Hints:
Layout: E1 8-12, H1 17-28, E2 32-37, H2 40-52, E3 57-61, H3 67-80, E4 86-89, H4 104-132, E5 136-140, H5 153-175, E6 181-187, H6 211-223, E7 228-231, H7 237-241, H8 246-256
Helix pairs in contact: 1-6, 3-4, 4-5
Amino acid sequence: MKDVKGLVALITGGGSGIGRLMAFDFAERGARVVVWDLNGEALALVEREAAERGLSIRAMICDVSRREDVYRQAEVLIRETGPVDMLINNAGIVSGRPMLETPDELIEKTVKVNILALFWTVKAFLPGMMERNSGHIINISSAAGLIGVRGLADYCASKFAVYGFNESIRMELRRIKSRVRTTVVCPFFIDTGMFTGVKTRFPLLLPILKGSYAAKKIVRAALKNKEQLIMPRLVGSIFILRLFPPAILDMAAGFLGINHTMDEFKGRI
């Protein structure tokens, strides 16, 4: 398990949810953590709690959906804090509506935040990692990045894209024998408020994950240089089901109640 003491770790969407939990976990391990978020009040609370606990967490307002904002804040971060050693692409939003009921603007926002932002952050920080021949990029996808779910067309599309993006970057780094590592994370629903109201038919098989549990698993996966983390393990059966005709996958999804998970969704953007 690698030592992150003194390393700079940037977490997008770090003002709340699992981003916030990961920030404190990395900071407690001695990393110099930077969190990006749009919510200034949440960022202020993170910095205040970190100071009270004697931890190194710097908060910066950044709209990761805006390429110019990402590049500008990246320059400030590198100049004032140092090169980024670990990039955790965690920021994400969900609309949670049937595709035809989702406003165009919300579809565009989902794509910008959930996938396009990864292009901007990786382009901002990967070159430096490659020059140093060290670093780690953690991309948060989803179980919904492996199987389509009713009411999540835009979210699923963006998270499928995250999975493919991570795989392509991993292949590019492997070809040049770079020591920069990547990890893709595909969790089932997490109880952070983003998916308030979602249901699961079989809680023992497909539990709604606790935020603290998910954050710890992601941090440990990064420390162990795992290339992929799927939570819970049953989600990994999707890869096997895809070997069969689509009707088999649809039947399995129906039996597990996957297409009813969003029936009582409330959530938040």
